[in-house]
């Protein structure tokens, strides 16, 4: 969601002969002691701004991703944007049938679109992850302080915190009146978005954001102490120690910590070190950093939510549109297990307008569903990894390219991957090279299962579940025809699994570079 920066890529794998295949053997005991493996990577998804949730294509994509992952909540910017219509003191809602003295004093608030937005989510069994942003212009201390996003949200502090406090109070009361406190007390309320960047116009930005947080958290808790509120919702894993020190010293309510990171963020910005952290390591390094900061804080057990993450914060078609996302996502899950309560992938759909109206289906958008309901490889990766169980099994060699789990019905679900860096970076798409690196052959030796147990194998790679291959074959049309869209929708679907059997408790899988496989074994 942030503007592009150059990021150095490693192309050493391109020098490896295509015929070379790495060999690996993994030993897994189906009855070994397990550790909990909650699906923290798919609890929440980000999306385009609030008003887009009223669109039919947004809701279709929401249903598609929910069916594949059963995710719990969705987070978006702009619930207070003027286009949603909540606050307008010059356009009061008056009932002509009432006497003037009977008109309610809170009629500067219009909850009509907010109700449509949240009703639409809840009807799909999806809760809002409520990001409280941005500033209504008629409440803003600077109506001209607009962000560069295409829809130009106002990012200034309020001109009077009494107005902000009253709006937050009315907003919370309305939600409880409409949905009930039992429901609303399960929602997460996050104060603002990335105040350490240009999404916040207060200066100096940290103390003025803390003032915003204090007012917001106290107003929410005054309505109901059961409301869950947190922050600082920073970019680049920033401010967490300062934020928790402030809330502790000022005795301000805080129920969770939230922050963001992307795979192409730099070590200088995130870790404050002078090193080149690869794209497949940056999210983990950031999660680990904040996890350790929390342990040293006055709130060592407070939940940590990375409310935005992805492999790129820019539009990089060779990254977020391609099968690269399969191994990247699987490896990120492996590394971050046990360090965070939830991570919100940015985003579930390319119904998204931060850089303007979408012009073409594959431009490096953040969503796992491209324009016109076309599933990307990232969608297939999420669908495959959703099959993993909720108990993690150890693997004898502790490999960096595998996850073993046990499902609720006692089956094994194993993810295997062959990570290779993107074959191109930046906003211009690069066709895949003939040689991206070596294939990898992994032999699984399984204990505690039938020697000839049945298995199912799902695959995502250049030749499986890869709509970009079909798009390339079409010549990458900027505006595909209706027939081409149907062909792309079909090409993006994950193929049916292969049905296999173990041989003497063993099974061998060969993965091409940037390949992901998920096995289930009864």
TrEMBL record:
Recorded GO terms, molecular function?
xylan 1,4-beta-xylosidase activity
Under PROSITE patterns, the record lists: GLYCOSYL_HYDROL_F39 (PS01027)
Coiled coil spans: none
> What region holds the Glycosyl hydrolases family 39 N-terminal catalytic domain?
28-493
- Active site residues according to the UniProt entry: 194
Which residues belong to the signal peptide in this entry? 1-22
E.C. no: 3.2.1.37
Keywords associated with the record: Glycosidase, Hydrolase, Signal
The Gene Ontology biological process annotation of the record reads: carbohydrate metabolic process
- ATP-binding as a keyword of this entry, yes or no, is no
The domain of life is: Bacteria
Q: Which InterPro entries match?
A: GH, GH39_as, GH39_cat, Glyco_hydro_39, Glycosyl_Hydrolase_39
Which PANTHER family does the record associate with it?
ALPHA-L-IDURONIDASE, BETA-XYLOSIDASE-LIKE PROTEIN-RELATED
Q: Which family does it belong to?
A: Belongs to the glycosyl hydrolase 39 family.
This chain belongs to which protein, by name? Answer: Xylan 1,4-beta-xylosidase
């Amino acid at each position: 969601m942030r503007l592009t920066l150059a990021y150095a890529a490693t192309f050493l794998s391109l020098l490896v002969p295509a015929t070379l295949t790495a060999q690996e053997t993994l030993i897994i005991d189906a009855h070994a002691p397990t550790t909990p493996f909650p699906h923290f990577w798919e609890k929440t998804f980000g999306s385009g701004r609030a008003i887009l949730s009223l669109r039919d294509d947004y809701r279709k994509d929401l249903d598609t991703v929910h069916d594949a992952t059963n995710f719990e909540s969705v987070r978006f910017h702009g619930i207070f944007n003027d286009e949603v219509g909540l606050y307008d003191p010059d356009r009061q809602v008056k009932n002509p049938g009432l006497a003037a003295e009977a008109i309610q004093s809170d009629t500067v608030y219009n909850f009509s679109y907010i109700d449509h937005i949240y009703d639409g989510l809840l009807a799909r069994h999806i809760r809002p992850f409520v990001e409280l942003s941005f500033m209504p212009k008629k409440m803003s201390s600077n109506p001209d302080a607009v962000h560069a996003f295409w829809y130009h949200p106002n990012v200034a502090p309020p001109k009077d915190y009494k107005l902000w406090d009253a709006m937050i109070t009315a907003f919370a009361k309305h939600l409880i009146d409409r949905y009930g406190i039992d429901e609303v007390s399960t929602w997460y309320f996050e104060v603002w978005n990335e105040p350490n960047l240009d999404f916040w116009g207060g200066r100096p930005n940290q103390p003025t954001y803390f003032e915003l947080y204090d007012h917001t958290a106290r107003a929410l808790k005054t309505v109901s102490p059961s409301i869950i509120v947190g922050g600082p919702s920073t970019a680049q894993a920033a401010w967490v120690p300062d934020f928790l020190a402030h809330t502790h010293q000022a005795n301000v309510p805080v129920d969770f910590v939230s922050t963001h990171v992307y795979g192409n963020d730099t070590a200088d910005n995130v870790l404050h070190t002078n090193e080149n952290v690869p794209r497949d390591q940056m999210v983990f390094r950031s999660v680990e950093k904040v996890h350790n900061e929390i342990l040293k804080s006055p709130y060592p057990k407070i939940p940590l939510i990375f409310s935005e993450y992805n492999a790129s914060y820019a539009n990089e078609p060779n990254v977020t549109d391609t099968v690269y996302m399969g191994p990247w996502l699987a490896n990120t899950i492996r590394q971050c297990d046990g360090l965070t309560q939830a991570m919100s992938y940015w985003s579930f759909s390319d119904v998204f307008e931060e850089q303007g109206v979408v012009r073409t289906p594959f431009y490096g958008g953040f969503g796992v569903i491209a324009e016109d309901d076309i599933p990307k490889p990232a969608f297939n990766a999420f669908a495959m990894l959703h099959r993993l169980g909720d108990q993690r099994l150890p693997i004898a060699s502790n490999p960096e390219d595998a996850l073993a789990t046990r499902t609720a019905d006692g089956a094994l679900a194993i993810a295997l991957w062959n990570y290779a860096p993107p074959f191109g970076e930046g906003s211009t798409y690069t066709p895949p090279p003939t040689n991206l690196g070596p294939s990898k052959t992994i032999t699984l030796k399984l204990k505690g299962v039938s020697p000839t147990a049945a298995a199912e194998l799902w695959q995502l790679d250049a030749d499986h579940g890869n709509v970009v291959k079909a798009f390339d074959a079409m010549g990458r049309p900027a505006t595909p025809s209706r027939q081409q869209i149907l062909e792309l929708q079909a090409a993006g679907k994950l193929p049916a699994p292969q049905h296999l059997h173990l041989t003497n408790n063993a099974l061998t899988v060969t993965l091409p570079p940037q390949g992901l496989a998920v096995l289930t074994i009864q």
